[in-house]
Amino acid sequence: MADKQVISKPAGQALLAAVESAHLRKDIPEIKSGDTVRLQVKVVEGNRERLQPFEGVVMRLRGGGINQNFTAPRIEKIEVLRHARVRRKQLYYLRGLTGKAARLKEIRPMTSKQAAAKEAARAARIADTAITTVNTTDTSAGE
């Protein structure tokens, strides 16, 4: 009886996640609603195929994991040009807007210098509040 090995099997959602992760493509970047993307779509003209670039804002993503998609058949390559801050998942209101009205607030990634400066400012703020708390505790204790 001691020779038997216990094999734990993932159940339910864990099993689905394990199977899906094996089938996900690694060359596709993470995409969210509001991102501006450039797609290379395969177009068939007669007996030859070529790549046609399309660029636009992702208005809606359907599904999740291996089932996540947006309406664009025969995609060869996806390139994310910029990320935008949006407060909705479905951006259908953008369809009727043009020009400046259709702009979205861009999210720019922080450089390592900016991240270090932000962390230093946060540490200084924490130290300042700690000193202020100690000073107010000392003055109330002396009275």
What would the keywords be for this entry?
143 residues, alpha+beta, 2 domains, 4 strands
User: How many separate structural domains?
Assistant: 2
- Globally, the shape reads extended
Please report the number of helical segments: 2
Give the helices and strands as they follow along the chain.
HEEEEH
Q: What is the terminal separation in angstroms?
A: 74 Å
Low-confidence stretches: none
Q: Give the beta-strand count.
A: 4
Helix content: 25-40%
Oligomerization category of the chains in this entry? single chain
Largest sheet: 4 strands, antiparallel
Strand order of the largest sheet: 2-1-3-4
Report mean pLDDT, rounded to a whole number.
Answer: 83
Strand proportion = 15-25%
Radius of gyration: 26 Å
Structural class: alpha+beta
Q: How would you characterize this protein structure?
A:
The protein is of the alpha+beta class. The chain folds into two domains: 82 residues, no CATH class; 34 residues. Helix content is 29%, strand content 24%. It has a four-stranded antiparallel β-sheet, with no helix packed on it. The longest helix is centred in the last third of the chain and has 31 residues. It is extended, with a radius of gyration of 26 Å.
Brief write-up:
Helix content is 29%, strand content 24%.
Blueprint of the fold:
Layout: H1 13-23, E1 36-45, E2 48-57, E3 75-85, E4 105-107, H2 112-142
